[in-house]
Amino acid sequence: MDIYEIINKIYLMPEASINKLMTSLSTVVYPKGFRILEAGKIERNVFFIKEGIVRAYVLVDGKEVTFWIGREGDTIVSLKSYVNNQCGYETVELMENSVLYVLERNDLYELFKEDIHIANWGRKFAELEFLQTEERLISLLFSTATERYITLLKNNSDLLQRIPLECLASYLGITPVSLSRIRAKMRQIR
Q1: Which is the CATH superfamily of the domain at 3-142?
Q2: What is the mean pLDDT of the chain?
Q3: Is the pTM of this model over 0.85?
Q4: DSSP run (H or E) holding 81
């Protein structure tokens, strides 16, 4: 996804502000399996996904629990690092060869001081990140595994081909066996 589309998806800005933001961006390419963020480290960059898919996970009792999946147009950020300059709790792993736009947090903070439109874009960015987290939490608390799977199919069906089923099961808050049962049940209904 083009960086202009990604920026404007977050918040529309005047062309001059977009161009100012663009001068601080660079493009990086990493292979599948690369860990773009590491738990226990302060991340000083914000990444925007041009091509590829990623997952964020935490270790719980020695097992990787996937809690977020990002794709083209999404942003990779450790909110704990972004907001408080503290070590993040998540690891973010590339699930495909990926092309990312990268923006150093310090550069972004300087742009916030210089340009009110970029500052408003940054505020909107943070609001959207928090809203997505809240929606994910509400879904896990108040919908069934089957409902979460149906929502995944409706909104992101291509993930079934792009992400290993173990990661999808973890993301849905269920075991791989439960996911297989739900999928088999769904096939019977069709």
Answers
A1: Jelly Rolls (2.60.120.10)
A2: 94
A3: yes
A4: helix 79-84
